Amino acid sequence: MAIERTFSIIKPDAVAKNHIGAIYNRFETAGLKIIASKMIHLSKEQAEGFYAEHSERPFFGALVAFMTSGPIMVQTLEGENAVLAHREILGATNPAEAAEGTIRADFAESIDENAAHGSDSVASAEREVAYFFSADELCARTR
Ligand code: RTP
Ligand code: MG
């Protein structure tokens, strides 16, 4: 099993509903270690840059408006097959289709406000971690 890093966002809806701790608990229960974490309020430019791959999609404006509507928590998570393991506990993009017991099934209301983000590949994870964290903000978890 490969030890990977992945990138996580607790989105404005879940922060507003005080679900930060409950979602962190899901990460730790799944064996994912938080190796960097901070609260930020994205600017429009930061949100547009982060979701640049979706810039031509019809939902892009709504996505940027939502992601800048309040503070978010950004995390780097580390563990065995972390990218896929994290996507599995997140559940499907649309919470109505998310498997029972997943973060989106339990904490999200709609496809537009779906509680959390997770990198979809190792390459995306590298880009997304670097978008928010400098190398010296990533802590070794060797104990
Ligand atoms: P995320 O990037 O936020 O983890 O979500 P994801 O990989 O599951 O989904 P993605 O395709 O990357 O889409 C990014 C966000 O855009 C919104 N979306 N809306 N109305 C729609 O058809 C639609 N499709 C995507 C969602 O809020 C999704 O999280
Ligand atoms: Mg995505």
Automatic annotation (TrEMBL):
Keyword Cytoplasm applies: yes
One example GO MF annotation: kinase activity
Chain residues that bind ATP: 11, 59, 87, 93, 104, 114
Cofactor: Mg(2+)
Active-site annotation: 117
Stretches assigned to the Nucleoside diphosphate kinase-like domain: 3-140
CDD domains (UniProt xref): NDPk_I
Keyword list, A-Z: ATP-binding, Cytoplasm, Kinase, Magnesium, Metal-binding, Nucleotide metabolism, Nucleotide-binding, Phosphoprotein, Transferase
Catalytically driven reaction(s): a 2'-deoxyribonucleoside 5'-diphosphate + ATP = a 2'-deoxyribonucleoside 5'-triphosphate + ADP; a ribonucleoside 5'-diphosphate + ATP = a ribonucleoside 5'-triphosphate + ADP
Known EC number: 2.7.4.6
InterPro entries membership: NDK-like_dom (IPR034907), NDK-like_dom_sf (IPR036850), Nucleoside_diP_kinase (IPR001564), Nucleoside_diP_kinase_AS (IPR023005)
Function: Major role in the synthesis of nucleoside triphosphates other than ATP. The ATP gamma phosphate is transferred to the NDP beta phosphate via a ping-pong mechanism, using a phosphorylated active-site intermediate.
Similarity field: Belongs to the NDK family.
Entry protein name: Nucleoside diphosphate kinase
Organism from which the protein derives: Shewanella sairae
Gene (name only): ndk
